[in-house]
Amino acid sequence: MKKIVLLACILGMASIALAEEKGGRKADEDAIRKAWSDYTVAFNMRIPKNMTAIWSEDGDITNFQGRTAKGRNALETLFADEQATVLKDTRMIMVVPNIRFLKPDLALVDGDATVAGMFSLDGKPLVPQRLIVSSIVAKKDGKWMVLAARESLPGQWAKK
């Protein structure tokens, strides 16, 4: 009987721990999605400084054009340049369909963005472009920050 009671206690404690972890995971997922939502709002409002707010101090990006930036100052410069040129009249919608936790404080994030309002180099309007944004995020001091992000245009490699 003592063994059954002990087993029941252990299973009960494990269930509580699992429920707390799932609840914590949900809160972390929500925080990560909110960070990318904040980035999208800043993108659409043309505020490069706010766009960089979700990056860690030494975070980096390689954008869909192959340009790279490392550190918040360089990120802000890159974002300002994009907003003044190729992305000047654009609007973005981004969803985060998948978050994979590698550790409790480290995750791989899939972002699926659509950017409308782009123009070709000769000034012709382009159809809305789909971007895949893969990022690694880490929880630092209770806040989820982007360590690295890579953008790609999935359609550019499609067979014709």
Helix and strand sequence: HHEEHEEEE
Instruction: Report low-confidence residues grouped into runs of 5 or more.
Output: 5-9, 11-20
What is the strand content? Answer: 35-45%
Shape: globular
Task: Please give the number of β-strands.
Answer: 6
Please report the number of helical segments. Answer: 3
Helix content: 25-40%
Reading side by side through the largest sheet, how are the strands ordered? Answer: 2-1-6-5-4-3
Structural class: alpha+beta
Overall mean confidence score, pLDDT: 87
Distance between the termini: 70 Å
Largest sheet: 6 strands, mixed
In angstroms, what is the radius of gyration? 20 Å
Topology:
Layout: H1 2-45, H2 48-51, E1 55-62, E2 68-70, H3 72-84, E3 91-103, E4 106-116, E5 129-140, E6 143-152
Could you describe the 3D structure shown?
The termini are far apart. Strands 2-1-6-5-4-3 form a six-stranded mixed sheet, covered by helices on one side. The protein has three helices and six strands; from the N terminus they run H-H-E-E-H-E-E-E-E. The chain is an alpha+beta fold and 160 residues long. The model is unreliable at 5-9 and 11-20 (pLDDT under 50).
In short:
The protein is α+β, with helices and mostly antiparallel strands and 160 residues long.
Keyword list:
160 residues, globular, alpha+beta, 6-stranded mixed β-sheet, 3 helices, 36% strand
